[in-house]
Write a structure and sequence with these properties.
2% strand; globular; two-stranded antiparallel ribbon; 24 helices
Length: 484
């Protein structure tokens, strides 16, 4: 391991992250909301610690090893989460504990969208914007931005790229140079954000709301400056714009970049994961709309087509935008069904949470193969995706990830129950946080502020596990990792 190199990269990340506090600092002066001192102190503190980490280690050129990539990725998310909590702590209003501040910060950076705040409209505008900004930075990952700068730092970034990105995108670089790949990803991410904000503004949002919601839409985060979330806007155009961009953000970014560079859409139609993603979302949305339509014949509940379509796309992609409290107005079957669809989440290489569509597809095909072997024991059956046989090591790694995910989910769920949280709240809050979804059911359908402090720490770990996809964090607890 190269601890000094890891410290150097972490220092760069902290310095870059401190710049994210400039926009809310300027907004606090503009709105005179009393938040200027909190953001100013947070910026100086974060940047100072970053400099202390970077300056003593700034010389030398090395390539990160796999072990270094994992430790840097985990340290980055934990470190940024801690420093990201400073503005929440330093603001005089609202006054919250460090547990709540860290929960809110990690929730933003991991694009989970779970919140401990219950009266958002009363909070300073600068802090509301900062929450949205956290999700945007965490969506694609500030680590990817650092990877783009690594040639300047004299550091190779492939191992960090592998530790940060998930699924097929890390094995299929879009350009020969890893830094160029990272730049393409950020160009696309920024372009989609600007386009989304412009569309929201055209639909009638204020400039503040358009930018703020574009951050949480493209990052598939789900935060909003309003308690009613997107239901605050009684504007169907806003809802349909959100649905379109949420769908786009849930697709593998390598497909977007390939289409951008070639000017052709053929890549989408030839990609098995994208087709599965589109079919799954269409099926779930259609089923929910039909079911709610039938229920509307016998009830006066809000079951309009647009609401069913909106919540299906939002929850299934792990965005977490809502128009109203589904638990209050809809039969329990629909919210629970949608919460379970969040396990699939977005495509690999997207900003979506969950297990990822490719893994679900591989597991499904593997199960079908095992069933065929029961009928034809001597047959040689290969798992294929898109007409290509998948290497056995890949299927084994997917099953290993799935087993680790279930183990961690069960362990954290039992710890939640040990904290005295009821079974229903424990289960649905764990689903929402581990899949980086945000809104849950039972006591966490609106916010997480009423949970006991130990439960919030457990859910904070769950959010990090979901964002890091379990294995990069678990590997740090194995003796093999720490052996020389």
């Amino acid at each position: 391991m190269y601890p000094l190199l890891s410290l150097r990269i972490l220092g760069v990340m902290l310095m870059l992250f401190s710049l994210s506090m400039l926009p809310p600092l300027l907004l606090s002066y503009l709105y005179d909301d009393g938040g200027a001192a909190a953001f100013r102190h947070s910026l100086v503190g974060c940047c100072s610690v970053g400099l202390l980490c970077y300056l003593p280690t700034r010389r030398g050129r090395r390539e990160l090893r796999p072990r270094d990539g994992f430790i840097v990725a985990v340290a980055a998310w934990v470190g940024l989460g801690i420093f990201g909590s400073l503005p929440f702590l330093l603001l005089p209003e609202p006054e919250i504990s460090w547990s709540n501040a860290l929960f809110e910060s990690i929730s933003g950076l991991t694009t989970t969208g779970a919140t401990v705040f219950g009266s958002l409209e009363t909070m300073p505008r600068s802090l509301l914007f900062y929450r949205q900004e956290l999700q945007w930075l965490g969506g694609l990952g500030i680590l990817v931005l650092v990877i783009a700068l690594m040639p300047i730092l004299g550091v190779g970034g492939m191992q960090l790229y592998r530790a940060e990105m998930s699924g097929s995108i890390k094995d299929n670089k879009l350009t020969p140079r890893i830094a160029e790949t990272a730049k393409y990803l950020w160009y696309l991410y920024l372009s989609l954000t600007v386009l989304c904000a412009f569309c929201y503004w055209l639909a009638g949002m204020s400039s503040f709301d358009a930018v703020a919601h574009s951050f949480s839409t493209i990052s598939i985060g789900g935060f909003s400056p309003y308690d009613d979330n997107l239901g605050h806007f009684q504007n169907s155009a806003v809802h349909y714009i959100a649905m379109c961009f949420v769908f786009i953000a849930g697709v593998n970014f390598s497909l977007h970049i390939a289409a951008w560079r070639s000017g052709k859409l053929r890549g989408y139609l030839e990609d098995s994961e994208f087709k599965t993603y589109a079919i799954l979302l269409c099926t779930i949305s259609l089923f929910c709309c039909i079911y709610l339509g039938l229920r509307a014949l016998h009830t006066e509940q809000p079951t309009m087509f647009a609401a069913g379509l909106f919540h299906s796309l939002s929850i299934a992609t792990t965005t977490g935008f809502t128009l109203f409290d589904m638990q209050q107005y809809w039969p329990a079957f629909i919210p629970i069904l949608l919460l379970f669809t969040s396990f699939a989440g977005g495509c690999t290489g997207s900003v979506g949470g969950g297990l990822k569509i490719m893994r679900i597809l591989l597991l499904f095909k593997q199960v079908l193969g095992e069933l065929r072997k029961l009928v034809h024991p001597n047959a040689v059956i290969h798992t294929k995706i898109g007409g290509r046989a998948i290497p056995e090591r890949v299927t084994q790694s997917v099953w290993g990830f799935f087993a680790a995910y279930i183990f961690v989910f069960t362990l954290l769920l039992m710890l939640m129950l040990a904290c005295g949280v009821d079974m229903e709240t424990s289960f649905f809050s764990m689903v929402a946080c581990m899949n980086n979804l945000g809104p849950g059911l039972a006591e966490v359908s609106s916010h997480y502020g009423n949970l006991p402090q130990p439960a919030k720490w457990i859910l904070t770990v769950a959010m990090l596990m979901g964002r890091l996809e379990v294995l990069p964090l678990l590997v740090l607890f194995t003796p093999t990792y720490w052996r020389a």
